């Protein structure tokens, strides 16, 4: 009997930690999302107002709709770019060789850089007067000389995507490489002998076999892209205008610039619902029994 | 239809040489088996013919044309892999039809050719299944159908039976032999299984350490092995090999083992070989050598008798009804016309070819 109780005692500290730092704040924010609570008026939460915040967000808030649109564009471009680049790099790095394995080892470095720092470095690199990228683009394409990248709504979103892809592509390349190395060689060799060109081997044999891995990469990247926050703070500040205000940054703005805790919680919970949906899908995909593909 | 030639072919990875300066002529329509233990270079040799590996030195010719610089798809070959190499996301029909699809053969014509190939290996009923819904034997038949669907000039088969269970192996072996006979396509077949080599091949190349040790018909390989490696590798149970001295046409070994070889020109250390089925166990005093029974093993179709003769242990194959007590005295008769004598230093056969 003592043995049976011991295992619960042993996981108790971890359980308390998760309860205190994750479950409890989540629960409080869920409750808050149904209340009217502005810190500018009161330090204690106000009355319950039902689903009013949710209705407002989904039907009558141009800021929310804008953030949703920005986030959707960001996710679509970011995920596509990351998957395509990771796949391409992985195919190039697939062959054995000293240089290949060296490159593979170096690949992990960008991922070790804090995302906030990535944003700051990119802000410097895209600075209109002294940014190295601004200089490079201006040298290659004369009419881009001195272009204010972060002053253009479309360009600043692309720079944000670029900074995030720079951080994520190498890591995802390693994931795809892992998937590639797990593929049996024989079907590809059979296709070569059957008369396929390298492009046909890739299209007809390698990619279909790699699809489950690419799906995992895409979903995982979507989850992280939906939460995009750090680089928005340090690189664009959500602007110009609201052109790079993602949902996560909007939640932060509502809560800690306008101090509307109730509404911020509601928007945060809409974002959370999307993330949970994707996470469940992701878990289903990776926990699926092998051979069930 | 074409002949395949390897001329002084070498394949090395860094300091490791997998195939060492080998030449081999495979005739048009011939069934050539490359036989050897793992790591002997047989699969590397086949992969070089396929174009999946590039030779470090030497030339490979198919139908008289040098193919060293041609990618696999331009060599007009078909290959069957050990783990089948099927396309897992395609149906059986699409797997078999893939080589035709790549050649631009469309619609009804492709379907007809796929059905004809599938019929040859009795797969018509399974055309809409996927590989994972098939048994191992069925998968290997899909691989065979994919190989024959477009009449290549050369078939390459890399241990196609080794993932099948014993019973299926026998029936698929016969199917492969029948197909090759019917189609008459030059075939190179890699295996480590001597039974497959003996049963399938027109000629066998026995390989070891990246070199062909003997190249001949199965009969000659079995009856006149060129060296000790071939003698020991072919045959089950393996040939008895006794270390000793040879002089004046007479072989002697420690403990009184002796035999008359009839080879006049050799004297010095030698190894005498005799196959278990060429050794007869006779009642004590009625043979050439005195011996005692060490063990008796019934295998079903025969009895394997291990006897102690001098310091040597000899295995004899006796009739399945044969019985004796362990330790009892017997005599051995060796079939003098089927003794094999090898030089101990060079390991080469001493009798004329």
From TrEMBL, chain A:
Belongs to the binding-protein-dependent transport system permease family. It comes from Falsiroseomonas tokyonensis. It is a multi-pass membrane protein. Keywords: Cell membrane, Membrane, Transmembrane, Transmembrane helix, Transport. The chain crosses the membrane at residues 70-93, 105-126, 146-163, 205-226, 261-283. This is Carbohydrate ABC transporter permease. InterPro entries: MetI-like (IPR000515), UgpAE/MalFG_permease (IPR050809). It is found in: Cell membrane. Its main location: membrane. Residues 68-280 form the ABC transmembrane type-1 domain.
UniProtKB/TrEMBL annotation, chain B:
Residues 4-234 form the ABC transporter domain. InterPro entries: AAA+_ATPase (IPR003593), ABC_transporter-like_ATP-bd (IPR003439), ABC_transporter-like_CS (IPR017871), ABC_transpr_MalK-like (IPR015855), ABC_transpr_MalK/UgpC-like (IPR047641), Transp-assoc_OB_typ2 (IPR013611). Pfam families: ABC_tran, TOBE_2. Keywords: ATP-binding, Cell membrane, Membrane, Nucleotide-binding, Translocase. GO terms for molecular function: ATP binding. NCBIfam families: PRK11650.1. This is ABC transporter ATP-binding protein. It comes from Falsiroseomonas tokyonensis.
């Amino acid at each position: 009997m003592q043995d049976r109780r011991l295992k619960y005692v042993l996981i108790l500290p971890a359980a308390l930690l998760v309860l205190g730092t994750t479950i409890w704040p989540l629960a409080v924010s869920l409750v808050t999302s149904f209340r009217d609570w502005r810190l500018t008026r009161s330090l204690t939460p106000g009355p319950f107002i039902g689903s009013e915040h949710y209705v407002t967000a989904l039907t009558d808030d141009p800021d929310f709709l804008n953030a949703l649109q920005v986030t959707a564009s960001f996710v679509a471009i970011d995920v596509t770019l990351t998957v395509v680049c990771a796949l391409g790099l992985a195919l190039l790095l697939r062959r054995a060789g000293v240089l290949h394995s060296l490159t593979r080892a170096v690949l992990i470095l960008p991922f070790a850089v804090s995302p906030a720092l990535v944003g700051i470095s990119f802000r410097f690199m895209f600075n209109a007067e002294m940014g190295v990228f601004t200089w490079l683009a201006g040298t290659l394409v004369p009419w881009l000389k001195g272009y204010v990248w972060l002053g253009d709504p479309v360009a600043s979103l692309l720079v944000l995507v670029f900074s995030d892809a720079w951080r994520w592509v190498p890591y995802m390349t390693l994931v795809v490489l892992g998937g590639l190395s797990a593929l049996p060689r024989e079907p590809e060799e059979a296709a070569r002998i059957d008369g396929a060109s390298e492009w046909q081997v890739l299209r007809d044999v390698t990619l279909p076999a790699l699809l489950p891995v690419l799906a995992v990469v895409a979903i995982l990247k979507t989850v992280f892209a939906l939460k995009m926050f750090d680089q928005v703070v340090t690189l664009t500040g959500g602007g110009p205008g609201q052109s790079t205000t993602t949902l996560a940054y909007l939640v932060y703005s509502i809560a800690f610039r306008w101090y509307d805790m109730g509404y911020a919680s509601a928007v945060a919970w809409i974002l959370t619902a999307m993330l949970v949906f994707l996470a469940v899908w992701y878990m289903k995909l990776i926990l699926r029994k092998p051979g069930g593909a | 239809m074409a002949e395949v030639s390897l001329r002084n072919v070498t394949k090395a990875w860094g300091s490791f040489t997998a195939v060492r300066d080998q030449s081999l002529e495979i005739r048009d329509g011939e069934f050539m088996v490359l036989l050897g233990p793992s790591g002997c270079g047989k699969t590397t040799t086949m992969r070089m013919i396929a174009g999946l590996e590039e030779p470090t030195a030497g030339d490979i010719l198919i139908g008289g044309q040098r193919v060293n610089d041609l990618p696999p798809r331009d060599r007009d070959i078909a290959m069957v892999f050990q783990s089948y190499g099927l396309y897992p996301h395609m149906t059986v029909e699409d797997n078999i039809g893939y080589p035709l699809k790549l050649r631009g053969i469309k619609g009804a014509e492709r379907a007809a050719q796929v059905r004809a190939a599938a019929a040859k290996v009795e797969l018509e009923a399974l055309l809409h299944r996927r590989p994972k819904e098939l048994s191992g034997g069925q998968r290997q038949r899909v691989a065979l159908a994919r190989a024959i669907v477009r009449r290549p000039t050369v078939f390459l088969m890399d241990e196609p039976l080794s993932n099948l269970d014993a019973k299926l192996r026998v029936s698929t072996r016969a199917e492969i032999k029948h197909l090759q006979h019917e189609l008459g396509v030059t075939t190179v077949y890699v295996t480590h299984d001597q039974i497959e080599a003996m049963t399938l091949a027109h000629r066998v190349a026995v390989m070891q350490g990246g070199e062909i040790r003997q190249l001949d018909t199965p009969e000659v390989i079995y009856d006149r092995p060129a060296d000790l490696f071939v003698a020991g590798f072919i045959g089950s149970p393996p040939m008895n090999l006794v270390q000793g001295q040879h002089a004046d046409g007479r072989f002697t070994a420690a403990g009184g083992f002796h035999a008359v070889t009839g080879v006049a020109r050799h004297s010095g250390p030698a190894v005498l070989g005799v196959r278990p089925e060429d050794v007869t166990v006779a009642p004590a005093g009625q043979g050439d050598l005195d011996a005692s029974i060490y063990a008796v093993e019934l295998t079903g179709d025969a009895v394997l008798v291990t006897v102690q003769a001098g310091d040597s242990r000899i295995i004899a194959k006796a009739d399945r009804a044969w019985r004796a007590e362990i330790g009892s005295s017997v005599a051995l008769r060796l079939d003098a016309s089927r003794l094999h004598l090898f030089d101990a230093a060079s390991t080469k056969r001493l009798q004329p070819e």
